[in-house]
Structure formats: structure tokens, C-alpha cells
Design brief:
The complex is a heterodimer of chains A (about 230) and B (about 450).
Chain A lengths: L1 E5 L3 H13 L3 E5 L2 H8 L6 E5 L7 H10 L6 E5 L4 H10 L3 E4 L4 H15 L7 E4 L2 E4 L4 E4 L2 E3 L3 H12 L7 H9 L9 H13 L8 E4 L3 E4 L5
Parallel strand pairs in A: 1-2, 1-3, 3-4, 4-5
Antiparallel strand pairs in A: 6-7, 7-8, 8-9, 10-11
Chain B lengths: L5 H50 L6 H12 L4 E6 L5 E4 L13 E7 L2 E9 L9 E7 L1 H36 L1 H12 L16 H50 L5 H32 L8 E4 H18 L3 E5 L3 E4 L1 H17 L6 E8 L4 E8 L33 H11 L3 E7 L2 E8 L4
Parallel strand pairs in B: 7-9
Antiparallel strand pairs in B: 1-2, 1-5, 3-4, 4-5, 6-8, 9-10, 10-12, 11-12
Helix pairs in contact in B: 1-2, 1-3, 5-6, 6-9, 7-8, 8-9
The chains are: A alpha/beta (about 230), B alpha+beta (about 450).
Amino acid sequence: MKLLIVEDQAKTGHYLRQGLTEAGFNTELVADGSTGQQLALTGDYALLILDVMLPGRDGWQILQAVRGAGLDTPVLFLTARDAVEDRVHGLELGADDYLVKPFAFSELLARVRSLLRRGSAAPQETALQLADLRLDLIRRRVERSGQRIDLTAKEFALLEMLLRRQGEVLPKSLIASQVWDMNFDSDTNVIEVAIRRLRLKIDDDFPHKLIHTVRGMGYVLEERDA
Amino acid sequence: MRRLSLSNRLALLFAACTAVVSLFAGVLFSRASEAHFIELDQQLLDGKLIGLRRALQDIQSSESEVRLQDELSRQADLSLRITGSDGQRWYDSSIRLPKDLPQTPGLSTLSSDGTDYRVLNAPLYLDKPDSPQLTLLLDITHHQHFLQRMQHLIWLTVGLSALATALLGAWAARSGLRPLRRMSAVASGVSAHSLNARLPEENMPPELAEMAHSFNAMLGRLDDSFQRLSAFSADIAHELRTPLSNLLTHTQVTLTRPRPIEDYREALHSNLEELQWMAQLVNDMLYLAKADHGLLMPKREPLELAEEVDLLLEFFAPLAEDAQVKLSRDGTAQMEGDRSMLRRALSNLLDNALRFTPANGEVRVRIIDQAKGLSLAVENSGDGIAEALLPRLFDRFYRADPARQEGSSEHAGLGLAITQSIIRAHGGQIRCESENEWTRFVIELPKKN
């Protein structure tokens, strides 16, 4: 799965490539718009990450060229300009998502994964599982080590999200957006509290903890060696 | 063409008015005196005519010559010509009389060889149709001189009074406009550093008092905005200084000597937290800057407020349960607005309310649907906020709780300012009231933007 990053700021580009490569993606980085467009038009990429302001051809022009060539490669825009018209313009041209600088890498990674997952139809699962934690999607029940655990509807949705994206660090903003449909910047600590309350039910009574906090980045559900 | 100053215009106008009025008066007066002189001359000549007719009753007698001389000698400026009915000149009392005299009967005026005459033509005998004609000539040169002098005097008066009123008018206009000049002096002295200058309103004439009041009010608003703006910039620097200093110190201390890998990880995590805090601050400030420039353009989606509030209450439910605070909503209303922006605005209010509600307290959202608009109140029980602090709550970086100092808390103190910007972008108003241990944020919104 190959990703193309077109970003003219060397430091940003370098860290983006390093981060995405380490997250398991085959990533290519170019710094100018013209080369970026040539590469994008080959159709070899599963996702394009485009800066708006670029030397040569800007991000919008590349997007237009890609859509004009009939390619439906998902496109994620990075922009330092947070003008409403810019967003509207990008979305009208067929961008799939945008991130405004400064953004957190965990946020970018989560969105990249969402975009890549969008294409592939998720198999109809009836249950999700990690270690001895089992979530029954049909009967809407949760068990750990065979013990039934009662969760509220939102706790269930939160756990379902963590299980579906197990191993991924999920930023708080993404959780708020996916579980509560709250898509705004907020400095509230609701998510921390919600995770703490879920831990109380899922992890506290068991020796192996499954929900982990990644400081400054978010939360991850995974099995770790004690 | 250069434009005339207001005082010069007024002065010229005054001068023109005075000139017209005095000219009119002068002309009227000179006409009246001329008419008066004519009347006097007529009376005099009529009297002389009677005397002369009497003297010349019998023109053939030698006595009549004596009587005529006698009659004429009584009035030195009077001359006489007697003309026969055939036009023959019979007698001239003086050799200097002009040759041609007007023949029209009655009074007329004649000017000849530098002498002015009032001339009266009348028949000697009223009962004879072919009577000889008497022509009486009265020298009125001195009258005419007097009239001419008076005309000169009138022109002089017109000129002088116009000049005088022009000068006086200019002076009056200038002193009348002095408050305006004072206003202009104050205005020209105003800069970003001296926005506290004010005009003395009490000394102003009533016509200008209102203007001075508006002017002062404008200065007041500018001063206030500028104060806030400069405080804002100072606050930004101040807010960023603490995390920056933490980052610098922590990074330098970490790098001073080799450490176990765990320490590096810890340092990076700590830096990450500071950086995220700063990123959030910068994003919030950009949002506010956008609002200040009128770039916050809310979408117009039809919204069911009860639904939106319930979703938010569900979002905040874990926090409320944790804090043992009861959340409730009452009432509903429909409106047009931007869902995501309003959610952000309300979430700031709810977050704020929850932070200041003691355990076993309550946070209520009340929606009241009215004909002209709707009001939404977020109220929480608790100690309440001092009256004096209420207007400052929406100021940027303002924290009601002095224990929360800059940088140390996860809240930058921009939440309520952002909420206010969002509400204003929707054409609404927000205020805070606090009484009887309840604190209430009241939003008033139009239904359609």
C-alpha cells in the first residue's frame, strides 16, 4: 500500500514520511507540485497527502488533474490556512479530508487509516475480540474472561471503536467525533473521563490491562506483555 | 478653486446682507429727500407766481417794472423770463439765463452751464388763452450738491458697514466655531497612545454638545477595544512564555548528560503535552481572530435545539456522573444555524458549568421559544460569581478562579470568548447573571440569521 506525500517544507515532509513508514505504510515524499502531479497521475498510490501551497503546481491543481484523469484516489489536504472558503473549495474539488496545521500526527494517522479503510468493505462481523475480551455485536453484550460486563450505549460504542481499531492510537478528537459525533475543537476532558469509566468496568478487575494511554496522543486498545 | 473657510463664507454673507440692506435704506432716503426738495420748491415757486402775477397785473404800466424788480429782489436765487404768446422773448431778469427753456407747463428741472434750475411754466393771465408765459427759474444748485453729497455718503456707509460686518462676522464666526477647532485639535492629537483624550462636553454650545458626546463615545469605544487588543497581545506572549520556558528547560536539562532511554521518552512526552497545549492555544486564537475579522460564517442548517442539547448532555454525561452533578434540559425550539459551531459554543458553556458546580449540584439547560427569538440558558448551582466579575467573564484569557494560573491549567481561558464570538456570528447575544447561588449564562438568538 503506497502513499504519496507532496509537501515542500522539508522538516514536515521528513517527519510525515518517517511516521507513516513506521506505521507500516510504504511512503514516497516529493517537495514540488509538478513532480507530485506526475507521480499522482501514475495511479500507483492508495492515498495522496497534499499540501495546498506548493511550488510548481498547488495542491488544488494537482487534485483537479487527478480527478480530471478519472482517478478516485483518496486525497487528504494539509493546509496552514483555515479559511472556510479554502475548505469548501477543496471539498468541492473532490478532496476527501483536510487537516489544518498545526495538527497532531496521531490525528493524521487516524485519518489516513480511516480513508484507506473506506474503500475496502468491512466484513460483516458478529463479534469483536481481543484476548479474553469479547464484544457481541448482535446481542450487544460484553464479556471478559466469561464474566458479563454491563455497559451503557455510549460505552459500548466506545469499546466497539477501540476493538475495531485495536492497535491504533486513537486521538481524543477522533473518539469524540466517531462515538459522540462531536466535531469541534474542545479542551474538555470528557473523553478522559469516559475512558476512565470504561477502564473501571473492563480493566480494573483483571490483571492484564487492555486499554492504554499514549501520553499526549490518545488511547490504544491492545494486549501488552505485563 | 480654493474652498472658502466657513468663517470667511459667513463673513461674506453678513457683508453682502448689510450692503443690500444699507443700500436699500440709502436709496429710499435719497429718493425721499429729493421728493421733499421738489415739494418745497413747488410751494416756493407757486407763492412767487402769485406775487408776480399780482405785480404784472397791468404789464403796460411803468409801475409794474418797479414792482417786478421789487418782487424779484426778495428772492436772489429766482429768475424770471416772460415770453409772449407768439414765442417772442419779452423779458429776462438775468442775462445768464439759458436760451432754451422747457415749454411744458408745470414744474420741471433743468441743468445748464453748471447751474441747476427748478423751472415753473405758467400763463400770466389765467383767463386769457393767448396770455404771455411766465417762466420762473429757481437756482437749486446747492440742493443738488447736497443730494450728491448724500449719495456719496450713502455709498460710503454701504461700503464701510459691509466691511465692518464682514470683520465682525468673521470674528463672531471664528469665536462661534472655536469648539469645533478644539474638537479638531483633540482629534488630531489622538493616537493609539492617547486614546484617553476627551472633549469638555459641558462648555459646548447645544448644537455641538451632541456631536462632542458622540465623539467622546467613539473615543471611549476605541480606547476600550484598543486596551483589550493590547492586553490580548500581551496575554498571548504571557501565555506562551510558560510552556516555552518549560520546553526549553526540560529539553536542555535532559540533554546535559546521557540518560536511560526511559528518561528521554518521558521528556518527549512532557514536551508533547506542552506543545499540544500551545497548538490548541494557537488554534483558538486563530479562531477568535477569524471571528474578529467577521470571517466566521455560520452555515444555516435547520436545527432542533432540544436534540442538539440532548446530544451534548449525553456527551457530557460521563463528566457529570463523575462529578455527581445532575444534567437536565427543559423546553425546545427550532432555529437556523451552524450545528458544529453551536455545539462548540454550548459545549464550552456546559464544560464551564460542570467545572464550577459542586458535588450533588445541578446543571440545567432551559430553552424558551419566543415569537421574536429564542433564549437558551445554561445554569448551574454553586457559589455564584461576584457581580463585578460578570462583565469580564467573556474577556480573553480571563479566569474567574485565580488559582488557575496561566499555562498550568488545561484551559487557556478562551472558551467563553469563543462562545461569545460564535453567538455573535449568529446575530445573538450572550450574558451572564448570578444570583441566589445560581449562575446563569443566557443566550438570545434570532430564529433566522
